[in-house]
Structures are given as C-alpha cells and as structure tokens.
Amino acid sequence: MSRPTPRATGAGSPRRSRRLTGLVTAACLALGAALLTPVPADAAGSTNQDAYRNIGQPDRAEWMWGVASDTPLSNMSIPGTHDTLSVHGGTSVQTQEDWGDGADTLTAQLERGIRAIDIRARVSGGSAFTIHHGVYYQQANFDDVLTKAQSFLRAHPTETIVMRLKSECPYSGAGTFECAHDPKSVTPATVRSIFAGYVAKYPGLFYTPSTSGSGRAEVPTLGQVRGKLVLGSFDSVDSDGYGIKGFNDRKEDHWAAETVAEKWGYVKGNVDQARSGRPGDMYVTYSSASNAPFGLLPSDYAGGWKLGNENGDIVHEEPGVNVQLMKHLNSSTGRVGVVMTDFPGWGLVNAIIDHNADNAVKGGNRTIWLVNADKTYVNSLYGRCMVRGPEFDSSRTGGLVTQRECQSSPPSSHQWGAEKPSTYDGKGYYWIKASNGKCLTVPYNNGTPPGSGTQLFWWDCETRWFSGSQLWNVIPTKLATATGSRPAYQFINNWTGLCLSMDPATATTAGGKVTQETCSK
Predict the structure, then answer these.
(1) Fewest CB atoms less than 10 Å from the CB: which of 191, 235, 333, 481?
(2) Measured distance CA(349)–CA(111) in Å, rounded
(3) Using H for helix, E for strand and C for coil, what is the string for 273-314?
C-alpha cells in the first residue's frame, strides 16, 4: 500500500528570527475521455503565512515515493528554491529562511519537500567552488552542497534532486555588487574543469548523462534518477553539453519585473502553459524577483507589502506572488513543472507537490481495477476477473455479476468493454457492457439508491436517459508495480456515487459477489 504524502501544518525553527520586511502577513487513456476529479489537498494552505517564510516541519522527506517511477521529470511538479543558499548579505540579497551555514539550510529545505535547487558558484583559489549571491559569500562551499545532498539521498533513496548550477561571477569587468573569480584569469573552461573534479570526487552521486559535458541528456524518468543528483543546467560556462534537454527552453525568469502584479502575471502565465503543455516538455518557473536595493526587495515580491499613512492606517496592500500562486494551484490540477521560489511556505510547497496527483501510484485495492487487452476486468487487490454470472431466468434479460479466477484464454463471459451510450447523451459517463451486449447495472431497489455491499446485475441497456444505475464515471489512476506503474481505473456509479468493488467475504470463492462500495482515496 502506498504511503500518504505527509503534510506540514506548522512552522519549524530557523536559526534566528528576522523582521518580515514589507510582509502582508481528463483523459481516460484507452477508454476515452472521462471526468477526472482533483485529489483534495489535505491541510492545504490558505493564508500568506502558509505561503511565505514558513516552510514548516521536516515531514516531506519522501514525497516522491508515491510518484510512479515511469514518470518523466518533465511531467512532474517539483518545488524548488531560487538562490537556494542565499541567507547572508541583508534584505537586498536574502532569498531563503536561514537554517544555518555549511549548507544546513539546504538540508532543512530537502527535509521539507524542496527537490530543485539553484546553486551559484564562485571559483576560489583556482580549484574550488564557494557559494555566492553576487559579491556576498553565503558561508557554504560546493563540497557542503554535495555532502548534504549525498547524505539526504542515501537516507531517502526514493527521492531525486534537480540542480541548476551557475558560474555566478562575470569573467571580466565585475561590478560593485558582483563577485570576481579567484584568480581573475579564470575562464569558462576552468569552471568546467573544476566541476569535473567534483563529479569524480563524488562517484555515484550525479546522474551521469547530465554531467558528461558531451551533450544534454534526454529527460529521464523518476525511476532512472531516484537517489541521484540531476544537473538540470550548467549556466554561464560557454557550453551546451550539460544538463537535461529543454531545461531552459520554457523558462519564466523576469527577475526585474517592476511590480508584484507584473511578476505574478508572468508566473501564472508560465504555470498555466505547463498545465496545458506537452508532457515531454520541461517548464521552469522562477517566482522570484528583485529591484533591490532601490526598489522592491525579494521578500516584497514573495510575501507582499503594505503601505500605511501617518495614522497607522493601511492605504494600500499588495499580496505577494507566493500566496497568489498557492491559491491558484490549490484550485487547479495538472503538471506545473519546476517552480523555483523565494521564502516558500509549507502551503506553497504542498500545493506544488499536490499537482503530481495524475502520476500518483496506489497499491492494490478492491475498488481499483486493471483493464487488460483481452477485455478482462481484474480486481487489483484480489486478482480475480469480473464475470457475467448466471441468468435470473430463462428470458436471459439479466443476471448476477460475479467473479472467478482469471484464465489465460478468457471466455466471453469474462469480457467487458466501456463505451458511450449510443442512443442518448451520456454526459461523459459510460456503459460497462458485457460481451452479450448487456450493461453493468446497480439494482433499481424501488428507486432508492442501494448502499455498499449491494451485488451488481447485468441487464438490458437503457435506450434513453432514464437512470444513472447503468452509467459509470471512469477515473484513471496508476497501480504500483515492481518496475514502475501501470494504468488502472475506478468505476463510479452515477446514481449511487459508489465504486465497482468485490465482496471481501466471498473474494476467494468462484462465483463470489461483485459489488459497489465507498470509493477509496
């Protein structure tokens, strides 16, 4: 059985508190189109405090466990941090909660669900990387980053980390707020060579195709990179030989937007494009922006700001990007790609994670069914086939629906198919028809919807919109397998709202009951 994604519902404890400057506290695969209801978010965030500078408790260290291994990274929704270790240099520079130096801040983020990181490196002494945001050293080195990432992945091998790595300093003409490589003779080739040394120093840590330097890797599946650090891109090194294909092709990074509203428009636009885009295309959205030191700070864009008058009255209030994004994601579904944030709150992180619902895997359950190419419907918990059982009488107008052991060459009584009603508008619902053309039916019960445990019938299909007792909503899901997942389905009756199931008391008996019951989540 799959473990539920844990939920953070409270703040953690950063190293030290800080003044909050400016804070305003579907498709049904081979069966055809069907309505896919979103998975409700448990403990979803609703306030600015949930979305901003409150990343919560360390209880999301293994959320990727529940995502199918055959899911490409491009088809996932991955919470990340912009300038992941930028905690020093003042409000103009800081972009994340401060959980400690030496990349302790990275560990805190990973334990709280962050899986995409943005690391900015300066060459120091001609042979090593130190972590900077512009001219400001962030009290961490690249060894710290890799050591902490390796420790996390060893402890949580179901996870992966996607890293954007950038050579932070210009190679000449560094400005007042820009760093300078040491020595100043450093070239892009120098940076690439130093990086290769780190890859060799940490064997088995990196996803090798992304670090070869000979060309960008094809987008891997989650199963290929569990336990690995994936280089998404290696920027400002004069080479297109690193990272993943398409990583920066659909990127939103208007980092100098003049207003919060302008930045939010860019963010929402890219996230919505990801929701409707092709599954094989990478989308990366930076929700961060800054016009510091003379304009809005990173915290103003992320957390919003208020303007008061001399009487202490609020005359203008601007909600931050974080809370607007969280609320937008809580009311929508579909892949949103990699989302790199400043000062994320637990509610925003959860909202991004929840957009992996389409790729969530489940263990066997009696309300989940496998549909095979031989037209058999197999219960995922018991492995038994749904069968058109004995007739009620000699008229052969109907009979019981039962289950039996599946056969390698299934007889016609074991075969079913989903099709839209041919004589009226089924409003998106399906008939489930036996091989003799009869429909899977919930008993009429004198017009009162019967409850859980009711055995189902096969019966003549209605030729007009008469009752929902023969109409089924087909909900696709995924069933965990040893190597990944496979498509599976829940069938929800239009009339009763209950799911196609099996009677556990007769589950191992030939001719046992096929029933309806409350749908599992």
Answers:
(1) 481
(2) 12
(3) HHHHCCCCCCCEEECCCCCCCCCCCHHHHHHEEEEECCCCCE
Look at the block and give the residue holding tokens 């007009």. 464
For residue 6, pLDDT beyond 60: no
Work out the burial of residue 182: count CB atoms within 10 Å of its CB; fewer than 13 is exposed, 13-18 middle, 19 or more buried: middle
Q: How many residues does the chain have?
A: 521
Residues 429 and 96: their CA atoms lie apart, in Å, by 47
**Beta strand spans in 127-262 (E):** 128-133, 136-141, 161-167, 229-235, 251-252
Who contacts 453 (Cβ-Cβ below 8 Å, separation ≥6)?
A: 503, 515, 516, 517
Provide the percentage of residues in the chain whose pLDDT is more than 70. 91
Query: Domains (ranges, CATH) in the chain?
Result: 29-359 (3.20.20.190), 362-517 (2.80.10.50)
Token pair of 361, please? 């895997």
**E strands within 303-426?**
304-308, 314-319, 337-341, 361-362, 369-371, 377-379, 384-391, 398-405, 416-419
Q: Which three-class secondary structure state does DSSP give residue 232?
A: strand
Per-residue pLDDT tens for 320-339? 999 999 999 999 999 999 99
Q: What is the DSSP letter of 445?
A: G
pLDDT in tens, 38-57: 333 346 899 999 999 999 99
Nearest to 27 by CA among 342, 453, 477, 447: 477
Rounded CA gap, 204 and 229, in Å? 9
What mean pLDDT is predicted for residues 506-516? 96
The token pair at 47 is 């306030």
How many C-beta neighbours within 10 Å does residue 299 have? 26
CA distance 384 to 372: 12
Please give the distance of CA 367 from its chain centroid, rounded to a whole number: 24
- 231 - beta bridge partners? 163
Beta strands in 158-228 (DSSP E): 161-167
